[in-house]
């Protein structure tokens, strides 16, 4: 018989660094055991993992490719074998195009690379975890599962130099609606956090551009966002304080979505 640990278990994709690491750290502070699914070698991110472990909660790190069905299955099996439960899923993993190109020149290879990870992999990983959550509910376990998807302001903002990224994030927004609708009958709520300009490895390459835009007022709140800003929004969704809401979106973007004149 599989042992079920007493702590809530949070599964987070792409949580070895950046926004995902910030989320993992915040949920561990909330008292959750953490299970990380990431492509990076453990040795390269050991410092980040140790930072979470210092909080005294169980931490599981699994190196795997989100686009690979067997890797997804192996991860889920490992989590259930070690923890016996999954309470929270945070779909954070995502990539930008390796090279920004106008949509009139975007290659099929680049399109497939971004979509396979950001959307296809996330869709089928969510499907896998959602089915585990449904079984938990049917078995009468005292678990209130929740799913949080990390999309982007790019889900509705045109950036023709990285169209494949925008399309993938628009897809995540629809994925949120679909799973919120389908899983509501089981009491499984699905939410979306929509980051704006967040300082990570992904945005380091355009720091000067965004520094200028922020100074010029592209966001009412004139500063960069940071992983901890996203993490706090995820924490709210996972807290159970919004249990009569599903399919909801929190924009963590310094007010960019206001579209002011």
From TrEMBL:
PANTHER family per record: 3-OXOACYL-[ACYL-CARRIER-PROTEIN] REDUCTASE (PTHR42760:SF133), SHORT-CHAIN DEHYDROGENASES/REDUCTASES FAMILY MEMBER (PTHR42760)
SUPFAM superfamilies: NAD(P)-binding Rossmann-fold domains (SSF51735)
Pfam families for the chain: adh_short_C2 (PF13561)
Stored Gene3D superfamilies: NAD(P)-binding Rossmann-like Domain
MF terms (GO), sorted A to Z: oxidoreductase activity, acting on the CH-OH group of donors, NAD or NADP as acceptor; quinone binding
UniProt name for this protein: NAD(P)-dependent dehydrogenase, short-chain alcohol dehydrogenase family
Keywords attached to this entry: Oxidoreductase
Family designation: Belongs to the short-chain dehydrogenases/reductases (SDR) family.
GO terms (BP aspect): bile acid metabolic process; fatty acid biosynthetic process
Family matches, as NCBIfam families: PRK12745.1
InterPro entries associated with the record: NAD(P)-bd_dom_sf (IPR036291), Sc_DH/Rdtase_CS (IPR020904), SDR_fam (IPR002347)
Listed transmembrane segments: none
